[in-house]
Design brief:
homotetramer; three-stranded mixed sheet; 13 helices; alpha/beta
Chain lengths: ~290, ~290, ~290, ~290
């Protein structure tokens, strides 16, 4: 049985290493990105660069997209630009389409509906694990959609990630992704508040980190971000502007369904303040800069 | 060399198992508690029950207190009640006094000043680790005070805990304890918000827990509290009313020094709401009830 | 000089009385509404009912729209539905278009750009004053756009409102409208918090109202809403779901430009909670129900 | 019938003009203040300066206190300092004691209990109206206590204020005072957020003020504070540190009784941030500096 052709749109910090893993696993790969030069290393490794998003979609047995936000995804799928838009209409009947961007559950369901109408199998499949996980092929996929469609796509997913969770019908993947990023953003913001309190009171932040790491509060994300906040080196691993966007999507969802999220709302304003006063692109641990102005 | 006599005031969920560990380690132990019957098992195991807080303090080479809040501690130390008050004045010159309650850093410093004036060696020594840690002798101590005084008290501390952190001068222990409880309270509240969002959107909370435990957001406290929230069984391990009190102390500190804590402030109101609408004593994971009303 | 023909799209609680005032002032009036029956009283009074939004727009020297939210406005202007969409393309060159909906400043600027490209004079012209002001012809208009275009439209505006503020270029009207609704929503939410505190402490809410009305805190909106909250009769004057939407637009704007709005964010979650737990359509004073659950 | 002797403790921005009005109304007046020189103008106008707080209290038919916060009041009433403390024990049986400080309802009730035990008639009688109202004799008094005691004190109250509200038993005055200051603080903070949004979006703050003053959002306090924020001249009329303290007292009350106050909690942190970063004493309208850092 020949491997299915995978097309991949969006070659950012996550997309590029995911593509390299698909190539390593032997999948024929067609790629497209707004800035074509980001495809160079992939083309060298055997990928074919499509001339447009549409052409990439047309070639796909399985299409994967991972772009920065809902408007970017809508543009790729339904936009009128001949180069960057219109991918959805080019998908073959029977193709699988998997979106790994983080977008609203409402958009995931809108895509699901349009897919059902055209005989396309859609999975909302956002990821977590960062660039490190993308490079190692150890991403965690949160998937909404039909179990059978997930099973069909599993070999492709397994090339990119180690943990593949089927969470419910379409929209479930994005809902739980937003909840997970809410949780990560609040853990980091909570540590920033704790650190601001301790240092503001005149004590060493290192002591707080030391105790935290010996306590029940220890978490994977704090092991990574606490030292970053102490050093103040905010080279982006996961950019603050994207975390801020995900918090906004989580709050939009909560407000649509009437579920109040008071601490998330408070934290989002703190992230917003730092976003507003920073010129460079910073990691989301830079939320601690709120107290450094 | 004979073991020093340890006196212990406050035989609650934490104090009693701590005392049993002191007895096991061979320390002569004098205990006192407002409700005397809580000392029964300790007396059976060899402790002496003092007739008053004052008498307990007078007998101590090392006095340890662990009571529920700042007013309770002030009453024990300086109150005029012949039975429950006046312990501080009864301490011998040269004695060590270690307070393991969670109180304000300001109160810790007030005690430190009074101790210095009387030749008493004071350590603020709040703990974390819960009743489980207290029983196993695996508490984590956060200590403010002189390094030499901590070294002198180390054998006693080691009978009760495995991790003993010297964090700075008096007040450092309480400051970092408040920051740690802020962090724990916000991690749990953040998970509650994530869970409210996921279940409010119609998906299974178990799925969120499963993903969380495979992710960077996993933490010791969430491993314990997430299942509690899913089941809704809030038998108190650490009571919500005490966590609420600690958040209030953290906010008081932040407001005294002008360090804003927006997410903590938001979360404290959520805990307050649950405290106000609950008649029984609940674990602080019951913050999730905010969304269940 | 004959009066210019005014076309009016959106015959809700505000639109209908505004139209009656235009008729009284002698303007030829063409109206359209999704539910045509809402035009009956206007047709009886001399208005012409257009067959579609497009037809209404085509007839206009001055087009006015007032619909419930940004998606509804985008649908009217650019939607593909033959009945309800496509109004923008039907506007004559040289026509004036005035939008009195509350939408994002970004959408106002998008319309302004599209208008400039087609030789249409656009004013963003949201209103405040409620149904009472709409009926009396005493609305307050907050206008963004060219001063000359406002002057040309003044006779039409004056038929509907008494206070006409020119606030800056396109977008200024919507920006200040969002800020004003933020202010009104927070004044009402602040009174609700004050009332919850007083009644929760066991005292009479009427006493708070009495003192408030004799104090510097008295405001027009509280004179109206305080008695409503005491009585608990939340017949919608300005519906909570629309105030919630406007708070969301204000927060979206703040988050886009990096201006933190902590109290607004907190209040929005409170409004959201009431929206989520209410089945009927309630006035925004019903935010007080947050404390009544 | 000779006029009763009034003793007055606390000659700050409010106390001094209140005393001048008492003198004008013909009351024999005994005054005391920590800094004695603040009594000079009163002594010139006929007041007697007591040598201690105790002596002032002993001379009183009616004692009035107005100090900055609960600890200051406890010190005056029950402190052991021979000069500044111990006033309560010196009060004559049958005297009336009226506290016009802003303190917790709990402290008001503690004083009420102690007063009942000693045959003293106690009113909690906090004021609003600012230095302007104090000078003009147009303060608003919020009174908790027995109606008969208020009637007996009415001539004294009327010398200082025009609006005298009997709100309930002891504690009612302080409760409603805290609710009123919560409301004023949030109105001002809400306007600051609105102004930050408008100016952050690039529009003129003056335009917002102009529209606000023509709208239902207009309030006495905003008429005064909006121009102050536009100018950035924060000469204290009501100092931010005192408003911050009152917000803290309101939040303490809410948290004791389990009434969540989310917007108040958010605003308090904003005030706290400005308090923490300001060296001078500023008016509470300076909360707008939060966005100017």
């Amino acid at each position: 049985v020949p491997q299915p052709t995978v097309s991949f749109i969006g070659l950012g910090l996550m997309g590029r290493p995911m593509c390299h893993n698909l190539l390593k696993a032997g999948f024929p790969l067609v790629v497209w990105n707004r800035t074509a030069s980001r495809a160079d290393s992939l083309v060298s490794a055997g990928a074919r660069l499509a001339a447009s998003a549409k052409e990439a979609a047309a070639a796909a047995d399985i299409l994967i997209t991972i772009v920065s936000d809902p408007p970017a995804l809508e543009e790729v799928l339904w936009g009128s630009n001949a180069n960057s838009g219109g991918a959805f209409a080019s998908l073959k009947k029977g193709a699988t389409y998997m979106d790994s961007s983080t977008v609203s559950p409402a958009l995931a369901r809108k895509i699901a509906q349009a897919s059902a109408a055209r005989g396309i199998r859609f999975l909302d499949a956002p990821v977590t694990g960062g660039t490190w996980g993308a490079e190692k092929g150890e991403l965690l996929f949160m998937i909404g959609g039909e179990a059978a469609d997930l099973e069909a796509a599993r070999p492709v997913l397994s090339a990119m990630g180690k943990k593949i969770f089927h969470l419910g019908p379409n929209g479930a993947g994005q809902t739980i992704k937003l909840a997970m990023n809410l949780l990560l953003a609040l853990e980091v913001d909570a540590f920033a508040e704790a650190l601001a309190l301790v240092t503001g009171a005149g004590f060493a932040g290192e002591k707080l980190t030391e105790v935290m790491q010996a306590s029940m509060a220890r978490s994977g994300v704090l092991d990574v971000k606490a030292p970053v906040m102490l050093k103040g080196d905010y080279t982006p691993s996961f950019p603050l502007r994207l975390m801020h966007k995900d918090l906004s999507l989580a709050l939009d969802l909560g407000n649509q369904i009437g579920v109040p999220l008071p601490a998330t709302a408070a934290a989002r304003e703190t992230y917003s303040s730092v976003k507003g006063s920073s010129k460079e692109d910073l990691d989301y641990a830079a939320v601690f800069k709120f107290w450094k102005k």
